[in-house]
Amino acid sequence: MDAPEEQEAAPVSPSKGGKAGRGASDGAAAEALRVQLAERTADVQRLQAEYANYRKRVERDRATVREFAVSSVLTELLPALDAIGIARDHGELSGGFKSVADQIQAAVVKLGLVTYGQKGDAFDPKIHEALTHTYSPDVAEDTCVEIFQPGYKVGERILRPARVAVAEPAEEEDTN
After folding, report:
1. Helix/strand/coil for 144
2. pLDDT digits 0-9 by tens, 14-59
3. Of the residues 80, 111, 142, which one is the last residue of a structural domain?
4. 61 with 102, same domain?
5. What is the spatial distance between Cα 157 and Cα 66, in angstroms, rounded to a whole number?
6. Cα angle vertex 108, ends 104, 109, to 5°?
7. Which one of 8, 27, 47, 143 has the minimum C-beta count within 10 Å?
8. Whole-model pTM above 0.90?
9. Cβ neighbours of residue 39 closer than 8 Å, sequence gap 6 or more
10. For 40, what's the count of Cα atoms within 13 Å in the CB-facing half-sphere?
11. Does 96 share its domain with 53?
């Protein structure tokens, strides 16, 4: 076993006058320790901030990956949801198929899928895809007058724009 190293006591300089010289040296050593403590405290605070930022970034990345995965699965289910909607519109949902369709629709709603696009909605090219265009004196602004396919979104991500027929206000003819 190694014997613990003993620190040698610093010799007292006769020119500094014994205890008076030791006080100045102790003050300088204390100040050096305070500076080191401040540096180490700043290092620890920096590391804590970096770790907190890292955790936030990882959580944000996980949420993004989850949203992307859910969006991909829901995008693949859109044709099936369209078929269910058409069957429901034509009164062809009954029996076991109705039960399965209801369960599928409940599951996709639980995953955050939102259906949008109603007749009479104001046309917004960011969320609607105009398939036909007409003029009508019955509307005051560009309006969705028919919905060919509903739109779907998850959160703020548009999976498919609503496919619509748009009516624009008819221009008034001058009677001069």
Report:
1. strand
2. 444 445 556 678 888 999 999 999 999 999 999 999 999 999 999 9
3. 111
4. yes
5. 13
6. 115
7. 8
8. no
9. none
10. 6
11. yes
